[in-house]
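Input (structure):
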């Protein structure tokens, strides 16, 4: 960028001249030390995904001839590579301090809804991730972002984060042994006083909440590690029988061949209705989660223009789309931009050097794959509860004084956890939006796309729940 630096403002210019010029340190009022510190902070706050994403996906991706711990370890490798590729693209192409990795919520949708509830093979689910990434790349390349944003009802977009938070919290609390299914009440408090897993999980959860509230970088990772240590310690001191609180196997493999490229097999086993819904949901959540995160973090960084828009937003959106496509090819769920990037921005990160630091730290974390394989499921799922609770903050953005916003937003939030599906929650909100607008005499607020989407989802709900697809999934 040809910007000269003075020794007064940048004491490290002697050994970072090329980086300073490439990323524009002077233009953004930063320096190499600040950018590296910001990258380290961002990585610490989001590195829990290296443990959590594999644990979630391993519940859907089962490989013949490989133990659960081996599958988890190879998925950890895939998670790291996908995160590194996406974040490197963000650094070198978009020159923004945003970090990316497989997203919470989308991985749960992949494992528990697409593969678990809908019965779609994990290979086909990966194919849907790949197709979603290609669609995202195409729409970003032709500059169709504004059109895509306009076609979705605003209250539904604003409600998705809270709905996903509830969805994640239920998954996490169940894995921690705190809630359980019940014939009489559907969901009930488990017998936590009789469960070592629940007791250790509760202690770990509140420790993690305390660390998070104190603003300690890496608080979720620390909470996961401390909870795991508590479980191992309880067995070591003979408080509980061996194998009660620790994984039965900690075998590790770095060979990702069984999952890399599996999407190709999935492309040959596609059922149109369900596949389209899965692709749509992946795209919807990824697109609006990324756009919302980019806007929110950019506001903190001072990147937004006078109209509240991020200049050249298509570049970070393209980095997200490329990450998702590569992730689907390698064997992981949708990649998205992390709100934890705000922690690095608050430390002064302003350029792609922050993202480059995060990407390099992800690659260095490959050395710690054996630790990820040794983390118990209940410990890793503490992250779901903590992040789920934090995501409740999004609900304040909804205009609760307008009933035509309340109904679609409320349906979106309620259906997600109760139907155990992010897709169904989004669909319920989209279907209800034009109906209540019409009933309230505000049909001018709707667009043809709203009605087309609503009609399509009504048809899908009928086909999906009437048994017509039975035997095809």
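Output (sequence):
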């Amino acid at each position: 960028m040809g910007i000269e630096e003075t020794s007064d403002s940048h004491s490290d210019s002697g050994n970072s001249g090329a980086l300073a010029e490439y990323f524009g340190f002077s233009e953004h009022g930063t320096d190499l030390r600040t950018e590296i510190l910001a990258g380290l902070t961002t990585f610490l706050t989001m590195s829990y995904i290296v443990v959590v994403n594999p644990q979630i996906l391993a519940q859907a991706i089962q490989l013949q001839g490989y133990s659960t711990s081996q599958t988890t370890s190879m998925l950890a490798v895939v998670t790291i590579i996908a995160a590194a590729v996406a974040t490197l693209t963000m650094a070198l192409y978009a020159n923004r301090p945003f970090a990316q990795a497989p997203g919470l919520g989308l991985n749960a949708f992949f494992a528990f809804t697409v593969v678990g509830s809908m019965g779609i093979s994990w290979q086909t689910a990966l194919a849907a991730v790949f197709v979603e990434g290609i669609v995202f790349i195409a729409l970003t390349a032709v500059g169709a972002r504004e059109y895509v944003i306009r076609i979705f009802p605003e209250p539904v977009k604003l409600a998705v984060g809270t709905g996903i938070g509830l969805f994640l919290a239920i998954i996490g609390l169940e894995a921690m042994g705190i809630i359980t299914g019940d014939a009489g009440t559907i969901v009930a408090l488990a017998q936590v006083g009789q469960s070592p897993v629940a007791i250790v999980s509760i202690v770990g959860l509140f420790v993690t909440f305390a660390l998070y509230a104190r603003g300690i970088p890496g608080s979720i990772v620390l909470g996961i590690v401390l909870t795991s240590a508590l479980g191992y310690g309880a067995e070591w001191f003979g408080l509980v029988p061996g194998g009660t609180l620790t994984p039965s196997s900690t075998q590790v493999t770095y060979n990702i061949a069984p999952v890399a490229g599996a999407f190709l097999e999935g492309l040959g086993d596609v059922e149109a209705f369900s596949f389209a819904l899965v692709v749509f949901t992946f795209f919807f959540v990824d697109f609006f989660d990324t756009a919302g995160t980019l806007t929110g973090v950019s506001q903190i960084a001072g990147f937004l223009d006078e109209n509240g828009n991020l200049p050249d937003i298509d570049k970070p959106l393209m980095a997200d789309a490329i990450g998702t496509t590569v992730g689907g090819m390698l064997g992981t769920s949708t990649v998205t931009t992390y709100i934890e990037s705000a922690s690095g921005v608050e430390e002064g990160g302003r350029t792609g050097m922050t993202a480059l630091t995060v990407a390099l730290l992800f690659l260095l974390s490959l050395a710690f794959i054996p630790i990820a394989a040794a983390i118990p499921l209940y410990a890793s799922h503490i992250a779901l509860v903590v992040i789920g609770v934090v995501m409740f903050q999004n609900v304040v953005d909804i205009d609760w004084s307008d009933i035509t916003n309340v109904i679609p937003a409320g349906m979106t939030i309620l259906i997600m956890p109760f139907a155990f599906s992010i897709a169904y929650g989004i669909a319920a909100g989209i279907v209800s939006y034009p109906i209540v607008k019409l009933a309230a005499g505000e049909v001018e607020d709707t667009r043809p796309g709203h009605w087309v989407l609503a009609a399509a989802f009504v048809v899908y709900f009928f086909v999906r729940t009437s048994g017509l697809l039975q035997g095809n999934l």
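Notes: Residues 26-248+271-465 form one domain. The longest strand covers residues 179-182.
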